[in-house]
């Protein structure tokens, strides 16, 4: 099994900030981030994670 990483730099700035400050919603777990096909569009990311 290969190692997978998510590049935090591809996430919307407000999502990055919440993750780094430990203030992200509880449903945004490392598993969710690693196993999701995260869109490049920041508005789509916010909708996907229920943040907008």
The major beta sheet can be summarized as: none
Helix fraction, binned, reads: 40-55%
Rg over alpha carbons: 11 Å
The overall pLDDT, averaged over residues, is 86
Q: What is the 3D form?
A: globular
Describe the structure.
- The chain has helices at 13-21, 30-35, 42-48.
- The chain is an all-alpha fold.
- It has three helices and no strands.
- The model has no long low-confidence stretch (mean pLDDT 86).
- The N and C termini lie far apart (34 Å).
- It has one domain.
Give a concise summary.
By secondary structure, this protein is mainly α.
Keywords:
globular, 42% helix, 52 residues
Produce the secondary structure layout:
Blueprint: H1 13-21, H2 30-35, H3 42-48
């Amino acid at each position: 099994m290969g190692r997978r990483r998510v590049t935090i730099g591809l996430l919307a700035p407000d999502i990055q900030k919440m993750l780094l400050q430990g203030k992200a919603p509880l449903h945004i777990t490392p598993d969710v981030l690693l196993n999701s096909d995260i869109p490049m569009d920041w508005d789509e990311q916010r909708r996907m994670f229920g943040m907008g």
